[in-house]
Design goal:
The chain has 318 residues and is mainly β. The protein has one domain: Thrombin, subunit H (Beta Barrel), CATH 2.40.10. It contains four helices and 20 strands. The strands form three sheets. Strands 3, 4, 13, 14, 15, 16, 17, 18, 19 and 20 form a ten-stranded mixed β-sheet that branches. Strands 5-6-7-10-9-8 form a six-stranded antiparallel beta barrel. The protein has a two-stranded antiparallel sheet with strand order 11-12. The longest helix has 21 residues.
Length: 318
Amino acid sequence: MVAAPLASTAATAQEVAAFWLADGAANLKNSTPYAVQTVVHGERTSTPIVPDGDPGLIPPVPGPTSPKGKLPTTSGKVFFVGADGQPHWCTGTAMQSSYHNVVATAGHCVYDTQSGAATLDKWAFVPGYTEGTTPWGLYVGKQASVHYDFDAYTDYDRDFAFVNVYSGVIMSSPGVLTDSGRLADNVGGQGFAYNRTTTSPIDVFGYPAGPNPDGTQPYTGQTLERSHGKTFNAMAPAIGGERLIGVGSPFTGEGSLGSSWLLDYSNGNRSGYLNGITISVSDIDGDNRHDTSLSPYFDGEAYAVYRAAVNLWTGRIA
């Protein structure tokens, strides 16, 4: 496991929050879906993935009873400034943790794989984001935990990250940040599943926005979307992905990077067990429409990275 600093001090975190929330949240509203490694050539494979230990489940923290609905309140957008100097976003989800302060997303939605910088700049999470609103506040990232192989080799079989965030803030008046509480206290936190079978029913939640290869654009990226399918063994040779899992999903790539794959999702509790993270999508059947989302397989090593983030305290910035 490698720990990568984001906004290491409260003062730096305040600057990040102000960047996103100032001027009526202009930078949130003007951000675009991240378009790095969104589409790859994926393949089904009969080669089994052998778990590295016994299967495990970490239970979720239930979310709020309101607003009503079947979609998870834990889902939202992660925002950052890319190597191009422009604001972008991926999908992220709040996780169960000791201090209720962990967000899961794709590793390359935290690490800058396009430039010499280690991590993407001004990283923050907004659960329930819709058109510039921050219904439960904005949560600035303090530190990311990633697998050593992703940090050292950009190994897409380990393309996942768990980010510890400070307590949330809102801008109560121009230039004034007000604390809005800990992340999972406000929205709940998903559980974690590892060393599970690679043929499981999964619900995928994300904010897809990009086009299909045929030019159709079925999603806007403005609302949280859901798809359901059964997982299977997969690989993506172009990025060296040899231990991936796929799921049938019509999500397009841009915007859906970091989407949560939830095992045993309950509509009533709006919670389940994170068992995958979208790192790219693919058109496996060749009809010019994306039909598959791809994720690393969550084994004991993935759990070790998650566990390292679980017990890190972050605190408040306002």
